[in-house]
C-alpha cells in the first residue's frame, strides 16, 4: 500500500550534492548530502533517511517520488556508457563523423570535434532503402542483419542503435531488424531512431539514437537498483522522472528513453523560477541556478521559460555552439557553464586565472572538504573570503577546513601570481562571476533581449553567494532568493506537471493540404502521449498543445507554428497559412507572399494541469531592522583587508525585516551575500528581496 499523495519526495542528483525534499501538506523538509558517484542510489538513500527523520514520518507514508539526475549527461561527457554499436543503411556508416560538414571555428586548423560515441569498427551497414515519403525502394536484407550477430558478439556489444535512412517516415525496417536481433540476442539493449527521435535530418537522429543506446544500460541498472532499494525501505509509491523539457514521465519511459533526462536537474530549477515569476507577476525573470558543478541561466518571458528542440552535450571548445554532440530532444533552453562551487581554478599559460570547466565534484571535492582534493575551487575561495560558515555548510553535513582552502589557493594561484591568498580568492570569484555574467549577456543578446531589464531569481547551493556580484555586472536592479533556495531544483520537481511530447516528421506542402493525413498523425501521437501521461497521473485532466514546424520551400530551418487542438477540416488551410505568416513576420518582419510553404514536422504535447498560481506581492511593507545573529569577517577588495559585517540567520528573520549591505544571510543549505550598495528585505512569503540602493551608488 502506498502512502498519502500529500507526502511527496523530490530528489535531485547533482555532480557534487544530492538534494532531497519532502513535502507534507505544503510544508517542506530538506536534506543535502554528498553525491556518491560509484553508486548514486547510496546518496539518495542517505538523504531520504535524513529527511524522514527530520519530518518524523515513515517511508511507507510517501505517496510519490519525483526524481531528476545528471547521470546520463555525466556518462556521455566522461565516456562511461555502454559498449554500443550502430546499424544503419549501406553507404551511411560515417554519418556520425561527417556531421554537418561544417566547422564551428573555420580558422582553427587544429579544431577538436567531439568523438563519436560509436567508433567506426562498431558501425555496421545493411542493404535497405526507404524514400522520404516512407515508400520502400529496397527491402531489408534480413540475411545481412542475421550475419551481423557474430560481429556484434566479437565486439562485445552491450547496446545497439538502429537508424536507417528515412526511418522516421517508415519504421518497418528498423522494427524488423530489432525483431531479428532480439530473437537471437534477447539480452541486448536496442534503441530505434524511429522511436527515440522520429524526425528528419540523419545526423541529429543518429547522434540522438546512439546517445540513448550509450546511456540506456547504465540508466536502466541505476533505475532498477533505485526502485529495488526504495522498496526495501518501504517506499513503493510511483516514481516519476523529470525530463529535459520540464515535464515528469514514468520510470518505464525514462528507462527506454534516458536521453530525455540529460538536463532533468536544471529543468527542475527552471520550473521553480517560472512558477516564482508567475506567483510574483514578473514578466521578465532570469533563472540563475549555481550548484556544485555548473551554473545554469535561463530567460523567462511572460511566465514561460525559453524552449528548444535541440541540445548540445560535451562541447569541446569552451561551450562554443557547434562543438558538441547535438541531441534532438525537447529541452528548456538555457546556457550552462562549468562554474559551480566545485569548479577548479588554475593559472593558465598567460598567467590568467581560469575557472573549470572541470570540477572536483563530490569525490575528492574541494580542498576544504579534506577528502583528498588539493586544487582550489570556487567553494574554497568563498570560504577564504568569509562568505561561507564552515560549521553550517550543507546543514553541517560536510565539515570544512578553512586552512586547506587557504593552502590550495596560495599554492596554485597566489604564489604563481604574487598575490596574497585572499586576493587570489577574490580573483577566483571575480573570474567566475564575470564568466557567468558574460554567458548571461550573450544568451540574452542571442534572444534579442537585455539582461538588465530582468529580475534575477537565484537558487542552488552557490547562487545566492554570487548573485549580488552578478547583478552588479549585469546592471540588474533586483534579486529574489526563494525559501529553500539551496535545494531549488528539487523543489521545482514538486511544481512540475506530468507531461510528454511526441514528434513526427511527415512532409506536407501546404498547397497539397490534407486534413485526414494530419489528423491521422495527431491521433497516433495523442495515443502515444496519453499512454505515458495516464501512467504517471491516472485520471488527471490533461491539456493538449499542437505545433507544426514550417518553412518556405527551400529554406534550411523551420519555425514553430501553433495549431488548433481539434480535428482539422478542409476549411483550415487558410488558418494554417495565416498562422505561419503571422509567426514568420514576428521573427523576420516580413513574409514571402509568392513562396510555397511546407510542414516538415508535427508535434503534440500532453500535460496535466498545473496548480493555479496565487499571485503575491513583494512590494515593501512595514520595515524594521533585522535581528543580528553575529558577525562574519568578509574580505573587502577595496581595502584588501577583512571587515566584520552583520550575520543574519534566515530562520530567525520575519516579513518586514530590513538588512543593509554588506551582510550575510545564512541558512542550512546556502548563504546569501548582500554586497554594499544593495539592501535586502524579507517579503511576506519569506523570500529574500535584494535590491540596489540607488542612494549609495549615486
What distinguishing features does this structure have?
698 residues; alpha/beta; Nucleotidyltransferase, domain 5; Dna Topoisomerase Vi A Subunit, Chain: A, domain 2; ten-stranded mixed β-sheet; six-stranded mixed β-sheet; 17 helices
How would you briefly describe this protein structure?
The protein has 698 residues and is of the alpha/beta class.
Task: Please identify the top-level CATH class of the domain at 80-218.
Answer: Alpha Beta
Average the pLDDT over all residues and give the rounded result.
Answer: 89
- Quickly give the structural class: alpha/beta
Q: Tell me what the CATH architecture of the domain at 80-218 is.
A: 3-Layer(aba) Sandwich
**Over the alpha carbons, how many angstroms does the gyration radius reach?**
26 Å
Q: Which percent range fits the helix content? A: 25-40%
Assembly state here?
single chain
Please report the distance between the alpha carbons of the first and last residues: 63 Å
CATH third-tier fold name of the domain at 80-218 = Dna Topoisomerase Vi A Subunit, Chain: A, domain 2
Amino acid at each position: 500500500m502506498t502512502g498519502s499523495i500529500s507526502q511527496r519526495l523530490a530528489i535531485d542528483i547533482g555532480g557534487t550534492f544530492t538534494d532531497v525534499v519532502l513535502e507534507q501538506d505544503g510544508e517542506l523538509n530538506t536534506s543535502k548530502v554528498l553525491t556518491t558517484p560509484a553508486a548514486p542510489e547510496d546518496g539518495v538513500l542517505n538523504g531520504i533517511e535524513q529527511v524522514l527523520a527530520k519530518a518524523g514520518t515513515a517511508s511507507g507514508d510517501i505517496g510519490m517520488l519525483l526524481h531528476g539526475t545528471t547521470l546520463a549527461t555525466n556518462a556521455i561527457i566522461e565516456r562511461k556508457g555502454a559498449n554500443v554499436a550502430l546499424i544503419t543503411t549501406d553507404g551511411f556508416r560515417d554519418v556520425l563523423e561527417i556531421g554537418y560538414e561544417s566547422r564551428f571555428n573555420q580558422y582553427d586548423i587544429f579544431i577538436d570535434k567531439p568523438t563519436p560515441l560509436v567508433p567506426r569498427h562498431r558501425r555496421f551497414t545493411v542493404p535497405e532503402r526507404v524514400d522520404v515519403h516512407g515508400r520502400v525502394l529496397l527491402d531489408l536484407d534480413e540475411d545481412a542483419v542475421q550475419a551481423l550477430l557474430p560481429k556484434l558478439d566479437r565486439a562485445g556489444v552491450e547496446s545497439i542503435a538502429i537508424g536507417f535512412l528515412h526511418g522516421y517516415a517508415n519504421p518497418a525496417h528498423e522494427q524488423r531488424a530489432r525483431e531479428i536481433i532480439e530473437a537471437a540476442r534477447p539480452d541486448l539493449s536496442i534503441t530505434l531512431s524511429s522511436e527515440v527521435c522520429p524526425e528528419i535530418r540523419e545526423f541529429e537522429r543518429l547522434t540522438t539514437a546512439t546517445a540513448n543506446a550509450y546511456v540506456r544500460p547504465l540508466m536502466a541498472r541505476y533505475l532498477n537498483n533505485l526502485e529495488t532499494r526504495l522498496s526495501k525501505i518501504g517506499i513503493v509509491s510511483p516514481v516519476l522522472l523529470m525530463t529535459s523539457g520540464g515535464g515528469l514521465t514514468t520510470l518505464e519511459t525514462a528507462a527506454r528513453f534516458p536521453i530525455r533526462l540529460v538536463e532533468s536537474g536544471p529543468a527542475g530549477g527552471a520550473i521553480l523560477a517560472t512558477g516564482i515569476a508567475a506567483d510574483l507577476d514578473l514578466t521578465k525573470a532570469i533563472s540563475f541556478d549555481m550548484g556544485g558543478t555548473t551554473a545554469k541561466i535561463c530567460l523567462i518571458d511572460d511566465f514561460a521559460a525559453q524552449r528548444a528542440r535541440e541540445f548540445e552535450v560535451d562541447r569541446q571548445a569552451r561551450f562554443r555552439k557547434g562543438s558538441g554532440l547535438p541531441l534532438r530532444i525537447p529541452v528548456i533552453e538555457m546556457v550552462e557553464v562549468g562554474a559551480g562551487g566545485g569548479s577548479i581554478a588554475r593559472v593558465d599559460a598567460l598567467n590568467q586565472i581560469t575557472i573549470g570547466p572541470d570540477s572536483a565534484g563530490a569525490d575528492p571535492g574541494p580542498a576544504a572538504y579534506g577528502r583528498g582534493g588539493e586544487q582550489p575551487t570556487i567553494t574554497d575561495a568563498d570560504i577564504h573570503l568569509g562568505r561561507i560558515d564552515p560549521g553550517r555548510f550543507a546543514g553541517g553535513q560536510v565539515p570544512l577546513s578553512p586552512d586547506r582552502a587557504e593552502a590550495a589557493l596560495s599554492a596554485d594561484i597566489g604564489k604563481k601570481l604574487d598575490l596574497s591568498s585572499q586576493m587570489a580568492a577574490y580573483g577566483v570569484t571575480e573570474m567566475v562571476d564575470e564568466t557567468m555574467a558574460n554567458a548571461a549577456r550573450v544568451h540574452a543578446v542571442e534572444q534579442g533581449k537585455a539582461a538588465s531589464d530582468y529580475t534575477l531569481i537565484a537558487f542552488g547551493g552557490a547562487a545566492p553567494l554570487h548573485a549580488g556580484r552578478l547583478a552588479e555586472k549585469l546592471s540588474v536592479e533586483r534579486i529574489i532568493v526563494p525559501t529553500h533556495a539551496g535545494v531549488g531544483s528539487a523543489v521545482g520537481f514538486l511544481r512540475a506537471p506530468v507531461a510528454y511530447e511526441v514528434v513526427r516528421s511527415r512532409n506536407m506542402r501546404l498547397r497539397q493540404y490534407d486534413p485526414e493525413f494530419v489528423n491521422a498523425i495527431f491521433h497516433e501521437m495523442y495515443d502515444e502521449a496519453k499512454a505515458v501521461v495516464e501512467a504517471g497521473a491516472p485520471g488527471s485532466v490533461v491539456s493538449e498543445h499542437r505545433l507544426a514546424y514550417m518553412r518556405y520551400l527551400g529554406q534550411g530551418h523551420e519555425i514553430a507554428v501553433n495549431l488548433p487542438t481539434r480535428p482539422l477540416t478542409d476549411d483550415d488551410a487558410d488558418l494554417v497559412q495565416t498562422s505561419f505568416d503571422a509567426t514568420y513576420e514576428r521573427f523576420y518582419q516580413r513574409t514571402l507572399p509568392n513562396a510555397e510553404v511546407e510542414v516538415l514536422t508535427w508535434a503534440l504535447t500532453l500535460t496535466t494541469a498545473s496548480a493555479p498560481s496565487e499571485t503575491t506581492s513583494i512590494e515593501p511593507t512595514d520595515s524594521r531592522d533585522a535581528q543580528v545573529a553575529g558577525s562574519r569577517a568578509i574580505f573587502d577588495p577595496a581595502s584588501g583587508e577583512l571587515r566584520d559585517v552583520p550575520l543574519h540567520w534566515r530562520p530567525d528573520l520575519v516579513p518586514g525585516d530590513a538588512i543593509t549591505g554588506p551582510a550575510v544571510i545564512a541558512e542550512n543549505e546556502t548563504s546569501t551575500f548582500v554586497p554594499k550598495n544593495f539592501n535586502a528585505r524579507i517579503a511576506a512569503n519569506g523570500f529574500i528581496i535584494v535590491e540596489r540602493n540607488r542612494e549609495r551608488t549615486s
